[in-house]
Every structure is written in structure tokens, then in C-alpha cells.
Amino acid sequence: MSSRLHNGNDVYEKAEEYWSRASQDVNGMLGGFEKLHTPDITVSKRFIESLKKRNLFGSYDYALDCGAGIGRVTKHLLMPLFKKVDMEDLVEELIVSSDQYIGPDPRIGEKFIEGIQTFAPPERRYDLIWIQWVSGHLVDEDLVAFFKRCVKGLKPGGCIVLKDNVTRTDKRLFDDDDHSWTRTEPELMEAFAGAELEMVVKTVQTGFPKEIYPVKIFALKPINQQDSEDN
């Protein structure tokens, strides 16, 4: 099913309605699968540390959490590693709840209340941009455009990470509950190429129940940046 068969604005409005009704806790952020939290954070932390060891981003200074919700990933993954973390989410109620969930902390930077279909990260700010379980809400052309804006948000040498479900088949699937797509890996690779991003590292999430979609983590670098670093 192509995202072109759905009107983007209609899908975005319905997705916002869905997440506005979600319980404002870890279980709500994980769609009722709270047990995924620990293996999710463990594998993600290992992945970021492996990127740093390979010099795929410059420093642990500044990260951005896209689709942050109440700040589950911000609090448990990014804040222990980075000196400063910005948050982005479409739903104002979730961002407001992050104040209580995370608590006052000088490592929290700006909180952007805007959907990723229009959000433009501040330019040349971030060492790492983390995009988890939110890209499926975008139609194809908006996903590519979002990746392009993320490239502008990177510091020189910075890295984008996408962590998301992928299908086990050669067809994407649409979820009528949260109004999101689960794409195939080739479709994601096509979106990366459209934004002139090179996939430099990939891993598969382990420790999740077998009945849910496979989850993969992709580290992405701007192709032009790669060219300049190689010269």
C-alpha cells in the first residue's frame, strides 16, 4: 500500500489524535508493550557507543530526540550519554508531561512542539539526531524532506540514526489505529538515497518478542559529508 493513497494531512491529524489519547507513561509510549523498554534502551546504547568508537559522530555534546513523547528515550538513552538533549514531538500534552517524567535537569535543552512533517532542526547544532518509531507517520515525500532538514541540523561529522519497524514481506503495511506505515527495508533505503544519506551501519534489535515486527537501527551520514571527510 503506497503512502500516496493516503492524504498526508488527514493521516497526520489522525495520528495526532491517537497519540493525544495515549497514556502519558512508558507503557503508553510503547503502545502497551512496556516490556520492550529495557532491551530497547540496552541495544540502542550499545549502538551509539559503537558509532562513537568508529568516529561516526564527533562528540557527546548535543543530541536531538525526534518523536520524543514524554522523554523515554531522552531520559534513559540520550541524557546519560550527551551533555545536552533537545526534544521534538507533535503532541503538546506529551511534551508537557516530560517535565514531570524527566524532572528539572540542565541537560535538557529546547523542547519543540511540532510534527516532523514540518519540523526543521536548528542548523549545524547536533552531533546525533535520533529518530525512533516516528518516521512511519510520514508519507514518502515528507520523509525524504524531513531527512534533508535533519542533514542541515547536523554539526560537521554528525550522524542521524533511524530506529524503526520494518516489514517481513516485500509490501508496506498501514496501521489503522495509529495511522502509520511499516515500510520495507528497500523503501527506507530509497528514502535515505533521496535525501543523499549513506547507510554506514545497521543492526537488528534483539530481545523483543517474535510476534512483533522486526526493528532495525540505521546509522546515516550525508553523502557529501562522507566525500569531504575522505578527501
From TrEMBL:
Its EC number is 2.1.1.244. SUPFAM superfamilies: S-adenosyl-L-methionine-dependent methyltransferases. One of its GO terms (molecular function) is N-terminal protein N-methyltransferase activity. One of its GO terms (biological process) is methylation. S-adenosyl-L-methionine binds at residues 67, 72, 116-117, 132. InterPro entries: MeTrfase_NTM1, SAM-dependent_MTases_sf. It comes from the Eukaryota. CDD domains: AdoMet_MTases. One of its GO terms (cellular component) is cytoplasm. Keywords: Methyltransferase, S-adenosyl-L-methionine, Transferase. It catalyses: N-terminal L-alanyl-L-prolyl-L-lysyl-[protein] + 3 S-adenosyl-L-methionine = N-terminal N,N,N-trimethyl-L-alanyl-L-prolyl-L-lysyl-[protein] + 3 S-adenosyl-L-homocysteine + 3 H(+); N-terminal L-prolyl-L-prolyl-L-lysyl-[protein] + 2 S-adenosyl-L-methionine = N-terminal N,N-dimethyl-L-prolyl-L-prolyl-L-lysyl-[protein] + 2 S-adenosyl-L-homocysteine + 2 H(+); N-terminal L-seryl-L-prolyl-L-lysyl-[protein] + 3 S-adenosyl-L-methionine = N-terminal N,N,N-trimethyl-L-seryl-L-prolyl-L-lysyl-[protein] + 3 S-adenosyl-L-homocysteine + 3 H(+). Pfam families: Methyltransf_PK. Belongs to the methyltransferase superfamily. NTM1 family. This is Alpha N-terminal protein methyltransferase 1. It comes from Caenorhabditis brenneri.
